[in-house]
Predict the structure.
Amino acid sequence: MVIRRALDLAKEHGLDLVEVAPTANPPVCRIMDYSKFKYDQEKKERRIKRNQHVMHLKQMRLKPNIGEGDYQIKLRQAINFLKKKDKVKINLFFRGREMMHRDFGAKILARAVADLSEYGQAEKAPAMEGRIMTVLIAPNASQLTGHAEGG
């Protein structure tokens, strides 16, 4: 259709002539209410943005001689963070002579990784950074796609 005729037709109906596919040969135009179209696009973008999740890094502090009850509390917190699709960084702090027994700390971190394996996996093996032994746990892929129960 000739552009002049399309513009007259749009004006006659009180609508706008909007170019939809400028790269097509010939370019494709549509007669529509442009302000309503823009509103619908913005609404769709807001809905998409609302459903997105920004992944945060949550840190937990442990010590090599942590008690069983305290360990279970920290474990439950880590599970909640992983369920909310956040990464968890577990820092195990050594003080004074505790540095002589790094194997205790390694066992605690290995146990934590094993206990959290249902909800997330370690991105890399536990590593020493000065007096701190660290492991980073990322949520499982099933949690990220939203197929996990809860939410």
Remarks:
- Helices lie at 3-13, 34-51, 68-83, 102-115, 141-144.
- The radius of gyration is 28 Å.
